[in-house]
Each structure stands twice: as structure tokens, then as C-alpha cells.
Design a protein that fits this description.
827 residues; 19 helices; Beta-galactosidase, Chain A, domain 5; 7-stranded mixed beta sheet; 34% helix; binds 2-acetamido-2-deoxy-beta-D-glucopyranose
């Protein structure tokens, strides 16, 4: 029970004293002699009844308080003013490609933004429904797509490849007016084989939804062509989205004016608004065109969705020009040659800044490698989305999930196709790279995340905000539970950002630290008090299922390393070394920030000192038997998955169990309390977070183990679980393939390189050993990721430990993009 709950109880008792027994006794005492007995008992009964009612009310209030607590905001000042993303305060970042899940879309950083987006369709197809590209989707099977340059502010350039043609989506913004400036996007398509140019439809839409308030759109038709849409919204004032005529010959134009009930229904509305036509008399295959005006102005649901379609044999170019009426002294329209020259200027500035920030040429990287690194950074930056909505959350006091408060989130995403939303522990890694490129954007992202903290100090780890985001997530993963943590990796970025702020006298830096600190305190406290372990200063992940009958090893989703083997039988007695290290890491940074602000730092430093004390750590987590750092818990290796067998002798009339029953877990030998002897990423944590003393013989053991190809070492990076481990590459249930049980993950390899770099530059007996490992591991990883990028067109979620092949979702330019920092040796 936490402090606040206790407070309310105390208050409850206090009120009872006043309204119930207290005054009653006085009355009673005074009148005792002069009043008959009946009155006394009546009074007593009345008082008892009153107190009971009061108690009942208090009880109900308390229950209500408990159920609401999970979605009560932290009672701390917000890091961000409500207007911080507005056009007035930050006009340059108001518009952006903040719809991460789309191949290309634009919106503002506002909950009430109109949204715009690109769809396209290769014509003359027999497929029904026609394969419309819109949301990034692996099943579209595009050979390649992704931002090649994106600076997070002024412009972005993306290359997309289809089977028979290539595509570019470029956009450029310009300052001016009162409502966050203007922008132009250009979509250019080119056929791969000039002998057989395909015919393609480009569709560009603008949409409002119920959140857009009094905003409205008005189509402008010129000779039956939708030449522009004018609109108005409170934030944007009057604006125009113009579709200039394109030069390509043989083009047709169509449009759709319709009603969109909700943002996740865009595809449905477009497909429903399509009809099949004949392109010309020679061609018989269907040509899909938009059906024109489907909803009249006076309809009860007036049109809020307009799509411009242009179809042509390639090559084809289309511009979309967004202009604000408040822009009165515009020199020239951002279009045609002016668009191109502005784009080129920003692009050159990007190259210059990239070279200064990462210095890759001076590290000997060749042109194709630098191009790869630019694209990888750009995808991280171009993947940054602006989401708005409420998570579904639940505590143990809630029978049903509740909506969290509605809030905005600016965040990068792990994968535009597969995970287009915010993940707490990913974000700490993402911002190592983002802050290197643009610390302002990182500070903004971190502030958004910390403002999602509830009263207890909890931050939901997966942020599924808004209908579009929810549409991408299976039902069972939507609800977030408040016992569950996730590694506090934001401290990785904060350490990097704060390093120079602590010494800087810049008032902006100091203001940021001052706003940051109270939230970090509450956050840290939440970890330190709710994720504690059975022994003093030990820690335990919550959220493991101790009743599982299907999982070989119950997952620890909260740790981020989902199926990495832990104790086979979750109990309250277990302790986790990775969480221990995260808290140690965080407490040290807390002490640093507290000192620089003149706040009380002593407790943080004391906690950091104990946790970093190798004797304390070893006593909790070093397994003498296996000579490695380990989790501790109720464990046996001897579990297996089996299909239920029919009973040996079926009685007459008894039916055998169905053969398709799922396999279940069988315990071959009973578990005992012991160190969990899997070797892999978790065992490395004291090394990964640089806690092992540089002279410790345990460091020697770890470095020796790192290099062993029978354990973690491969030619492509460090695998997640030793080849020798019992659960190496094993399915966790019949349907649950290995995830953190073999594949190579970039975030952990980044930490390993960072640690090797640290030990290689710290005096000690193992300096040279660390240096050697560092050099080899770094070149293995960089070479493999680039090779795979060039072979497949993508960055991947993880890499196969036997072949180096990219695996899992793609493009995955979340933490896999840390390879850019690895190339630049920025740790
Ligand atoms: C934004 O909000 C803050 C706090 O409410 C206020 O001080 C500031 O003037 C506002 N800025 C603008 C440009 O409206
Ligand atoms: C963290 O929790 C432990 C108790 O488990 C406590 O002794 C320590 O002071 C706490 N650290 C901080 C900085 O609050």
C-alpha cells in the first residue's frame, strides 16, 4: 500500500472520530442524569446507524479511489505546456510526416489535425479488392521503401520500390503566416522497363474526423477535376490543398467526395467509393476510378473526406501544395523548380550536418556505407509520430479495463509496418540516436513520455493511442497493467543529454532539468518500491504467469526480453539481474541530477553505491558453480512440451481426446531454488551497464565467454542466448517461436560495444582484451547489417545467428538503427 492510500485511511478514521463517537460522548455525558434510558438507547442506535452509513460511504469512496488511482495523473507539474506543440510556440515542427504507419502522410502535432495521405494502385489488375497501398504493410511485399533523408524539421525524401517501377515521395516545408507555415509534397514515379511502362493511379486524400471540431472542407472543381480543397480549422485558419496539373501525357483525373466516420476506416471508404471503368477500347482489364461526389453538402453527415486521383502511364509526377491564407507576403509558390531548388538546399544542409555529427568518412566508410547510414538515421527520424488518445489500463482493483486520460505522444516507433506506436523501453534506445542528431526533438519526446506518468509513478509501456493505432494491435495486448514495468531505458538517453547539461549554465538546460527531476524522482521511486525483490536491494520483474500450463518457460514481457529463459516457476522469491542493473544505472544518474540542482542526492548516491558494490551484486547474482551472473529463483531445466496422450485403456463408450489438442508443459523433475543457469544477454547485464569493476577477475571471465563461439559469439554480432543453453532456439509453446533465444539484437549489441569501448579505455588488466573484442565485434555487426540492407532492402528486427540474415519485422529502424552510432563510435 502506498503513501496516498494510507493518507486517505487516516483521514477516514479522523472524520469518524469527529462525526461519530467524539461529539456523541459529550452530549451523552452531559444529559446522562436527567434523561430516561430510552432516549439514551435511541441516541446510541442513531449514532451507530450514522457511523455505519458514514463508514459505508467512506468504504465506497475508498473503493472508487482505488479503481480510479490507475488513471489519475501524477500530481506534479507537467513537463510540457498544453501549447508546446502548437503552431504559435513551435511553428517549424507543427506540420510533419507524423503518421508513422503510412507510406506517406502529413498531419500537424495537434489532436485536431486534418490528416492527409497518399495511396496508390497499379492499374489493370484482376485482384479484388485492388491492391491499394496506404498503411505500411509487410504483406504488400514491396522490395524496398524508406526515407533516404529526413531532418525532422524541414524536409524528407523517401524512396519506394515496386516490382515494375520506383517512386519518390519528397516534401519540403516553408515558414510563414500565422498557423505553422506551408509545405509541398511531390510524388514521382518512374518505370523500371521503358518498353513496358505500367499505368498507376496516385490518390491523395485529406480527411477530418469527429475530433476536428468546427473544421470543414470544400472541394474546388475545375473542368470536372478536383483542382484543390479549401478548408478551415481553428488552428490552421483558412487553408488550401492544391493539386497542380501534372505534365505527363495521357492522364486521367478522378475524385471522391465522401464521408469518413473514423480515421481507421479510410481504406473502406475509398474502396467503397471506387468503380471499375475501361481505360480505352483496347484494354479489357479493369481500371479502378473514384466515383466522384457521393455525399452532398446538405447531407446530415457533410463530406469530410476528399481524394484526388490521377492516373497515367509512367513516368508520372504529382505535386500537393498546402498553403495557408495567413501567408500574405509569399514570394512564390513552393512548386516546380522552386520546390526542387529548396529541396536540394535542405538536402545539402542535411549532408553537411550528417558529416559533422557522425564523421563517418573520417572513419573510413565508403560512399555506399554512408548512404546506408543516412537512410537509417532518416528512417528513425521520419518514423517519429504524433499520436493522441487514451490507453486502456487496468489495476488489480479494476474488474474491467479503464481508459487512461487522453494525451498526446510524440515518439519514434520501432517499425512503421509492424509496430507503428510508442514502446517505452525502445524509446530510450531510439533517443540515443535521435539526441545525437537533434537534442531538442529528444527532449520533447522524453517530456511527452514522462507526462504520461500516473499518480503512482507508472508509465504504461506500450502506447496504443487512437483508432489508427488500435487497429494494428491484437486485442489481448491492448490493456496495460499497472504492476508491470519495462526497463527504464530513458535513463540511457537522459544520461547522454544531461551529461553536458549538468555542467552547462544555459538557462534552458537548467529549466529542462528542473522540470525533469520531480518526474524522474517519482518514476524512480515507483521502480524502487514496486519492483523490489525478496532481499534488501534486490529486484524482481512482475507480470510473469506462475499458472502457465503451456509455456516451457513463462515469459517476462515486462523485462523487454520476452521469452529469454528465467526461473521455470515464477515465485515472489526470485530476483532478476537485469532489473537490478537498470536500477543501479538509474540511481547513479538520479544522484548526478540531484547534485547539479542542489536537491537531496544522498539517498540516490547511497543506493547507487550499494548496488554498484560488486560484493553486494555478487552475493545476490554470481553463480559460483556456473561462473556467471544469473537470475535466482525456483527453477528446473527439466520441463518439456507434450501432447496429451489418450489414456492407455479406453473404457467402452469412452472417446479418445481429440488429437489436435495443444501441447502442454510437463515437469520432469521438481524445481529447486537456485541460480538460473541460462547464459546470454541477461547474464551480461553487469558488464553491459559497466558495473563490473575493471580489475575484477569476473570481467576476465565475461570477456573470455564473449569470445567463445559455442556461447554468444558469431560473425554477425552477439547472439541472445548461448548455443549451449538448454532453451537455445526452442519454441516456448507449440506456436511461439524463439525470439530472444538465439537471434542477434542490435540494442544489446550496442550496449556490449559501449561497454567494451568503456573497458578498452579504462586502465586495468583487461584493457587490451576489451579493445580487441571491441574492434572485431563492431566490424562484424556493421558489415552484416549493411550486407543485409543491400541484399534485402531493409533493416531488420533481429539477425539470424547462423546466417546473419535479417529476421522478424521489417523495416525495423527502431533500435536496429543504433548501428549508425556504432559506425560513428558514439556511446
Ligand atoms: C504557452 O503557454 C504558456 C503557459 O500557459 C504561456 O506562458 C505562454 O505564453 C504560451 N505561449 C504562447 C505563444 O501562447
Ligand atoms: C530504494 O529502496 C530501498 C529499499 O528497498 C531503500 O533502502 C533505498 O533507500 C531506496 N533508494 C532510494 C533512492 O529511494
Amino acid at each position: 500500500m502506498s503513501g496516498g492510500a494510507r493518507d486517505i485511511r487516516r483521514r477516514a478514521r479522523h472524520q469518524n472520530d469527529n462525526s461519530g463517537d467524539g461529539p456523541a460522548r459529550t452530549t451523552f455525558d452531559k444529559k446522562k442524569q436527567s434523561k430516561p434510558r430510552q432516549i439514551r438507547s435511541a441516541l446510541l442506535i442513531g449514532l451507530v446507524a450514522l457511523s455505519t452509513i458514514a463508514l459505508a460511504i467512506l468504504y465506497l469512496l475508498y473503493q472508487w479511489y482505488l479503481t480510479e488511482r490507475v488513471r489519475t495523473q501524477a500530481s506534479l507539474p507537467k513537463m510540457l505546456f498544453p501549447n508546446s506543440s502548437s503552431a504559435e510556440v513551435d511553428p517549424l515542427r507543427f506540420w510533419g510526416s507524423y503518421r508513422s504507419q503510412l507510406y506517406f502522410g502529413m498531419k500537424t502535432r495537434s489532436p485536431r489535425s486534418p490528416v492527409m495521405g497518399l495511396m496508390w494502385l497499379t492499374e489493370f489488375t484482376n485482384k479484388m479488392p485492388p491492391p491499394l497501398r496506404h498503411w505500411c504493410d509487410q504483406s504488400d511485399g514491396l522490395p524496398k521503401y524508406g526515407w533516404t533523408k529526413h531532418d525532422g524539421i524541414n524536409f524528407g525524401s523517401q524512396a519506394i520500390e515496386e516490382e515494375t517501377y520506383t517512386m519518390r515521395t519528397d516534401f519540403v516545408k516553408q515558414k510563414g503566416g500565422l498557423h505553422g507555415g506551408e509545405w509541398t509534397a511531390k510524388i514521382s514515379l518512374k518505370e523500371k522497363n521503358p518498353e513496358k511502362p505500367p499505368t498507376v493511379s496516385l490518390l491523395f486524400y485529406i480527411a477530418l474526423d469527429s475530433s476536428s471540431g468546427s473544421a470543414h472542407l470544400e472541394p474546388v472543381l475545375t473542368k470536372k477535376r478536383l483542382s484543390s480543397v479549401s478548408g478551415y480549422s481553428d488552428e490552421l485558419g483558412n487553408f488550401e490543398v492544391i493539386f497542380p496539373k501534372t505534365k505527363s501525357k495521357l492522364q486521367k483525373h478522378n475524385y471522391l467526395i465522401s464521408y469518413l466516420p473514423r480515421l481507421d476506416k479510410i481504406n473502406d471508404v475509398v474502396l467503397n467509393g471506387m468503380k471499375v471503368d475501361a481505360w480505352d477500347s483496347a484494354r479489357t482489364l479493369p481500371y479502378f476510378t473514384l466515383g466522384g461526389r457521393l455525399v452532398g453538402r446538405d447531407s446530415p453527415s457533410p463530406p469530410n473526406f476528399m481524394v484526388h486521383q490521377v492516373t497515367a502511364q509512367l513516368p508520372l509526377e504529382m505535386e500537393i501544395v498546402y498553403q495557408s491564407r495567413s501567408f500574405i507576403d509569399r514570394q512564390s509558390t513552393l512548386s516546380g523548380d522552386i520546390f526542387t531548388s529548396t529541396l536540394n538546399r535542405f538536402s545539402a544542409e542535411f549532408d553537411k550536418k550528417f558529416a559533422e555529427t557522425f564523421n563517418l568518412e573520417s572513419k573510413g566508410y565508403k560512399e555506399n556505407e554512408v548512404t546506408f547510414a543516412k537512410a537509417t538515421l532518416s528512417n528513425m527520424i521520419g518514423g517519429i509520430g504524433y499520436f493522441y488518445g487514451a490507453s486502456l489500463v487496468q489495476s488489480k482493483y479494476n474488474k474491467e479495463p479503464l481508459e487512461y486520460w487522453k494525451a498526446p505522444l510524440l515518439t519514434a516507433v520501432p517499425s512503421r509496418s509492424f509496430f507503428p506506436r510508442g514502446f517505452l523501453w525502445d524509446e530510450g534506445f531510439h533517443n540515443l540516436l535521435i539526441s545525437q542528431w537533434n537534442p531538442t526533438i529528444s527532449k520533447d519526446i522524453i517530456s511527452h513520455w514522462l507526462d504520461l506518468m500516473n499518480w503512482e509513478g507508472w508509465i504504461p509501456r506500450e502506447q496504443i493511442l487512437g483508432y489508427e493505432a488500435r487497429a494494428k494491435v491484437p486485442q489481448e495486448f491492448i490493456v496495460q497493467r499497472n504492476e508491470n514495468a519495462n526497463p527504464p531505458t530513458l535513463f540511457l538517453t537522459i544520461k547522454k543529454l544531461v551529461g553536458h547539461m549538468i555542467s552547462s549554465k544555459d538557462s534552458k538546460d537548467q529549466a529542462f532539468l528542473k522540470a525533469l527531476y520531480p518526474r524522474l524522482q517519482t518514476w524512480f521511486n515507483w521502480y524502487n518500491s514496486t519492483q523490489n525483490g525478496p532481499l534488501p536491494l534486490s529486484y524482481r520483474w512482475r507480470g510473469r504467469d506462475s499458472n502457465t500450463v503451456r509455456e516451457l518457460n513463462p515469459k517476462t514481457l515486462t523485462s523487454g526480453l520476452d521469452d529469454y529463459p528465467r526461473a521455470s516457476h515464477p515465485t515472489d522469491q526470485e530476483r532478476h539481474i537485469d532489473l537490478y542493473c537498470w536500477i543501479a544505472f538509474a540511481s547513479e544518474i538520479m544522484a548526478d541530477i540531484a547534485k547539479s540542482l542542489g536537491e537531496r542526492w544522498e539517498d540516490y548516491e547511497a543506493t547507487a553505491r550499494i548496488l554498484k558494490d560488486n560484493n553486494h551484486m555478487d552475493s545476490l547474482h554470481w553463480s559460483d558453480k556456473k561462473q556467471q551472473y544469473s537470475d535466482y529463483g525456483l527453477h528446473t531445466n527439466r520441463v518439456k512440451l507434450e501432447r496429451p496422450r489418450p489414456p492407455p485403456n479406453l473404457n467402452p463408450g469412452q472417446r479418445p481426446p481429440p488429437m489436435d489438442q495443444e501441447k502442454y508443459r510437463v515437469i520432469v523433475s521438481e524445481p529447486t531454488y537456485q541460480f538460473v543457469n541460462a547464459f546470454g544477454y541477461v547474464s551480461l547485464f553487469p558488464f553491459l551497464l559497466k558495473m563490473v569493476h575493471p580489475t575484477s577477475p569476473k570481467l576476465f571471465k565475461i570477456l573470455t565467454d564473449l569470445k567463445d563461439p559455442r556461447l554468444l559469439w558469431t560473425d554477425y554480432g552477439l547472439r541472445s542466448l548461448a548455443k549451449s543453453a538448454h532453451l537455445y532456439n526452442r519454441y516456448n509453446t507449440e506456436h511461439d517461436p524463439p525470439y530472444w533465444r538465439g537471434p542477434i539484437w542490435m540494442n544489446m549489441n550496442y550496449l556490449a560495444l559501449s561497454a567494451l569501448y568503456h573497458y578498452a579505455s579504462t586502465d586495468g588488466p583487461y584493457t587490451d582484451m576489451a579493445k580487441e573484442l571491441y574492434t572485431e565485434l563492431r566490424s562484424n555487426i556493421v558489415a552484416n547489417v549493411i550486407k543485409e540492407y543491400e541484399r534485402t532492402g531493409y533493416m531488420w528486427e533481429n539477425y539470424d545467428d547462423k546466417t546473419g540474415n535479417g529476421k522478424g519485422s521489417h523495416p525495423f529502424t527502431g533500435w536496429s538503427a543504433l548501428v549508425v552510432l556504432i559506425m560513428a563510435e558514439e556511446y
